[in-house]
């Protein structure tokens, strides 16, 4: 498949060996100045920033009274909903019999407002790349996802202190990975150092007024922050051996009942995950109009696979749990030959109420 990056970038200032564009100069912004510039840009671009409220961080639109907090580990919900809302109207139609267009569905206008997610972590940007293979590929393009993603600039904030549940480096990313990002920021204490990774990123920094050129002291500091972050990453996973295993051997492995025993099918793991994309489509009637709406769904819910006939091919929770891990760690690898369907953000590990850990499941699958 064509490089995901090249599917969304324009002309470049310089090309790396991986084909990505890169600005040759890093810029620095004092933190207070950076915020002022973001606020000035917020008139023309819908800017999402991390905000603490009150227990967890969440991405909110930068507006009056909204105070970003970039000193955070990550948001509880991934930012996938900014591009792929949990509930979205796709089509609408009139149900008024006097209307000549009665019962004829038409597209709802696509939202093409320029967006920027400022402070997104590299694992979540990588998550968009993983999901992009499903929504934007040579055979199929989801116009709603694609139009929003193409309107969006990803301003990543390198992760200076990864948490104990993070494992981005084992799944093709890293705390300072530039994958899918347009700009990468380093937190240097009272300053951010910024590097444009794409032309889109260059444009964003130019629109923000540009910063002072980073000197050797700032670059050295950034290097140290990166090294220290890499050392903090704890447990890793390896999914390489899973690729070589036979599907049936994994499917019929004897550990699934054991893993599924405590699962309460709450769906938390899939709703928080930046790389889960399952949805359901419902038609709703409101007076004389009808809407076709797409809603997030979850393979962990029994209704997800319930057929109209009443038959359910995955009516047991062990079947649903196995599907989640087989899709993430086996089927996705086999289908796309591009790693696993996981960016190592660690949310499912951190928030599963019964401590089911994808890293342990990967180990078990590796050892089949
Ligand atoms: S978060 Fe944990 S308990 Fe809830 S569905 Fe996922 S694996 Fe099961
Ligand atoms: S599977 Fe878990 S660790 Fe991997 S991207 Fe999803 S929430 Fe993050």
Descriptive overview:
This protein has two domains: 228 residues, no CATH class; 127 residues, no CATH class. Helices cover 32% and strands 19% of the residues. Strand 8 and strand 9 form a beta hairpin. The N terminus is likely disordered. The structure holds iron/sulfur cluster (SF4) (2 copies). The site of one iron/sulfur cluster has 12 residues, from helix 10. The site of one iron/sulfur cluster has 14 residues, from helix 12.
Tell me briefly what this model is:
This protein has 368 residues and is an alpha+beta fold.
Give a quick set of tags describing it.
globular, 368 residues, 12 strands, disordered N terminus, eight-stranded mixed beta sheet, 2 domains, alpha+beta, four-stranded antiparallel beta sheet, single chain, 13 helices, binds iron/sulfur cluster
Average pLDDT metric: 92
Unique ligands: iron/sulfur cluster
Distance between the termini: 30 Å
Low-pLDDT parts are 1-21
Number of self-contained structural domains: 2
Principal-axis shape:
globular
- The gyration radius over C-alpha positions equals 22 Å
Please state how the strands of the largest beta sheet are arranged side by side: 3-2-6-7-8-9-1-10
- How large a portion of the residues is in β-strands, by DSSP E? 15-25%
Count of DSSP strands = 12
**Percent of residues in helices:** 25-40%
Largest sheet: 8 strands, mixed
Q: Oligomer, anyone? A: single chain
By DSSP (H or I, 4+ residues per run), the number of helices equals 13
Q: Which H/E pattern describes the elements?
A: EHEEHEEEHHEEEHEHHHHHEEHHH
Category by helix and strand content: alpha+beta
């Amino acid at each position: 498949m064509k490089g995901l990056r090249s599917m969304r970038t324009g002309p470049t200032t310089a090309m790396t060996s991986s084909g990505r564009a890169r600005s040759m100069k890093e810029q620095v912004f004092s933190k207070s100045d950076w915020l002022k510039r973001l606020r000035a840009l917020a008139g023309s671009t819908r800017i999402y920033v991390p905000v603490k409220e009150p227990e967890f961080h969440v991405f909110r639109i930068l507006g009056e009274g909204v105070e970003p907090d970039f000193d955070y580990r990550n948001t509880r919900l991934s930012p996938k909903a900014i591009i792929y809302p949990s509930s979205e109207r796709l089509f609408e139609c009139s149900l008024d019999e006097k209307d000549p267009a009665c019962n004829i569905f038409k597209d709802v206008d696509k939202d093409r407002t320029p967006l920027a997610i400022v402070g997104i972590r590299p694992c979540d940007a990588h998550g968009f790349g993983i999901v992009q293979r499903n929504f934007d590929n040579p055979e199929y393009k989801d116009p709603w996802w694609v139009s929003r993603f193409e309107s969006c600039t990803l301003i990543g904030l390198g992760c200076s202190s990864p948490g104990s549940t993070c494992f981005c480096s084992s799944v093709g990313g890293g705390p300072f990975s530039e994958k899918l990002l347009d700009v990468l920021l380093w937190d240097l204490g009272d300053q951010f150092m910024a590097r444009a990774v794409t032309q889109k990123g260059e444009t964003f920094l130019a629109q923000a007024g540009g910063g002072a050129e980073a000197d050797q002291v700032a670059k050295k500091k950034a290097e140290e922050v990166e090294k220290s972050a890499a050392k903090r990453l704890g447990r890793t996973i390896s999914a390489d051996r899973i690729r070589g295993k036979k599907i049936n051997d994994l499917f019929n492995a004897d550990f699934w009942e054991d893993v599924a025993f405590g699962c309460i099918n709450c769906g938390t793991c899939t709703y928080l995950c930046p790389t889960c994309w399952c949805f359901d489509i419902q038609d709703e009637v409101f007076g004389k109009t009808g809407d076709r709406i797409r809603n997030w769904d979850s393979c962990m819910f029994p209704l997800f696979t319930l057929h109209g006939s009443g038959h359910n091919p995955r009516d047991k929770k062990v079947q649903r749990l196995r599907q989640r891990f087989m899709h993430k760690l086996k089927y996705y690898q086999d289908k796309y030959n591009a790693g696993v369907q996981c960016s190592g953000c660690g949310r499912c590990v951190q928030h599963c109420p019964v401590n089911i850990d994808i890293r342990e499941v990967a180990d078990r699958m590796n050892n089949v």
